[in-house]
Amino acid sequence: MLPLEGMRVLDMTQIMAGPYCTMVLGDLGADVMKIERIPGGDDTRRMGPFVENESVSFMMINRNKKSLTLNLKTEKGKQIFYELAKKADVIVENYKPGVVKSLGIDYETIEAMNPGIIYCSVSGYGQTGPYSHKGGFDIMAQGMTGLMSMTGEPGGRPVKAGIAMNDISAGVTALYSILAAYVHKMKTGVGQYIDVSLVESGLAWSVWESAAYFGAGEVPTATGSRHRMNAPYQAYKTKDGYVLVGGANQRNWEKFCKGVVEKPEWIDDPRFLTTVERVKNVEELEQCIEEIFIHETTAYWVNKLDQAEVPGGPINTYDQTLNDPHILARGMVQEFEHPRAGKMKTLGIPAKLSKTPGQIRMAAPMLGQHAEKILSEDLGYTPEEIQQLRENGVI
């Protein structure tokens, strides 16, 4: 049995933040129905690469879901949505604020039909505040939260994180908020509304940076791979690339000096005596370390770090990551069978639950693939009625 078996979710989201949240709910056993618009469905379906005309990007983030296309601008389409909503535990949507109200599928409307509904809205800036009316994508949220001002090399152009960090952080925020609301519902029978934004979700992750500002008035700037509060804790140039060193406490620093660079005299060097001094003199420390590291390969230094039990490692390219023996041994590359694209690979499930581990139970759906199943099994529609809905452009 999966932990969320029995939870019914209506997923009205697209692109990344909302779909990531509902994917994890599906991985943990929830019955996720993806309600997609007519025509075209989720915009991600039109993002490459494609296998047999099916988007691999869509496949990666929409597994363990069923798909029903629904024209919510028709009265019949809205009625079908209401029927599904009455039986649902969770609704997740990421329309621009105000759209669900204009469609008549907002929280207040659904709560009147189903007081136990957990209704989560994911948007760029939230449902309230002076920017709530603005559309927002991940890169705007990275810019507004200050993330781009402190990513990249000192003095360089602003750089976004390599992944859609604010999208994913919003998906994770929505996920744990829904789970908390679901626990509350199990205790009381009462649902609630959840307002999640890309901006606040990403901002909440900047704990060290906010500490620097609130504690010392320091405005964080770009530091490359350096840490703001620890050293040595960054990438160092080697003979054939770079190696990462995590000497993030005094014990690791001393092991690094003795067992890796074989410079025990650095331990008592006034420039490097404490973490504070090492951070203050980080440029000198970098120069001293790289003068040694430059004579051997990355693999050599990774091995030395491992032998000295100092955290360290290479900077992999993504193909190296997805073929790394540790990643494979931990089950982070999985295979599934797609009805049109055939056998495909996907990322695995990162949390390893001992009693109720998540499962990849089904491939991402083709557009509208489960219309008959949902309408007949969940709502009792006859084949003739379903055909009429198709002819009328409702589904």
UniProtKB/TrEMBL annotation:
UniProt keyword Transferase, yes or no: yes
GO molecular function, one term: formyl-CoA transferase activity
EC number(s) per entry: 2.8.3.16
Organism from which the protein derives: Ammoniphilus resinae
Keywords per UniProt: Transferase
Enzyme class of the recorded protein, top EC level: transferase
Protein name according to UniProt: Formyl-CoA transferase
UniProt xrefs under Pfam families: CoA_transf_3
Coiled-coil annotated residue ranges, if any: none
Gene3D superfamilies: Crotonobetainyl-coa:carnitine coa-transferase, domain 1, formyl-coa transferase, domain 3
Superkingdom classification of source: Bacteria
Extent of the signal sequence: none
